Structure formats: C-alpha cells, structure tokens
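Bump. Still looking for Rv3654c family TadE-like protein structure tokens.
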Amino acid sequence: MTSRRAEDGHQGRDRQSSDSQPGGPARRGECGSGTLLALGLGLLLILACAAVALMGQALAASARAASAADLAALAAADAERGLRSGATCDLARTVAELNGAALVSCTIEGPGSTVRVVVEIDTGAPWGPAPGRARAGPPAEDVGG
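Sorry for the wait, here they are.
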C-alpha cells in the first residue's frame, strides 16, 4: 500500500539543495581550513619555543665556559706566583676539567706574571663548543702615573 503523496511524486518536504543556499558549494572548499591554520600556528609556536630553549642552552654553556676559564686562570696565576704547588698549565687543565671544560691553550707572559687561558665546553649542539677566555695575574701598571 502506497500513500497518495508517493503516487503523485511527492516524497515529504521539499528540500533545497545546498547549491541554492548562500555560500553552499564555495564553502565546501574551505572545510578544514581552520584546522590547518590552527596546526600551522601550533607548529610555529613549538618552533619558537625550541629556538628560545636552544638560545638559553647556548647562553648557559657560554657562562659555564667563562666561569671555568676564570677559575683555571686564577689557579694557574697562583701556581705561577708560587702560591700553589704544581705546574702552571697542568693546574689550569685540572681546574678546567673539574669544571666540565677542556683547556685549549695556556699562555704565561713572563715569570710570575700574567696567565691567559682558553677553554671549551662541549655542548653537543650543531654550532660547536662554547668557548671561554680569561686572564689572571697582577694588575697592569699605570701608564704615565
């Protein structure tokens, strides 16, 4: 048994196609664009945070290298002046290693005088090790005084 409406070709309410509605087919191409925008912004935020973290790591390694160089230079200067036992540059190497650095160079400028050291801390980062430089010894004499 069929109803009279079905026989007349009517099948319930008339529905408008989405093509006749404003923004119908054109909006279909925009579906999901908000998701892609959110994903892109999220990725950008993650990359920015990673860049800030890498800069912080580089600054921390640089500060550690500077501290290790200062301590190594002071220990070497004390040894050069006879205030500590041991060879000047060997003591600088030991102090640098105790502070997580490797001694690159140790220069003595005259007996009982200034010691210059250069150390590096391996960061494991692609930009290489963090260098530290320091000088220790008696103060420079006043010129013209």
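The longest strand covers residues 102-109.

Edit: fixed formatting.
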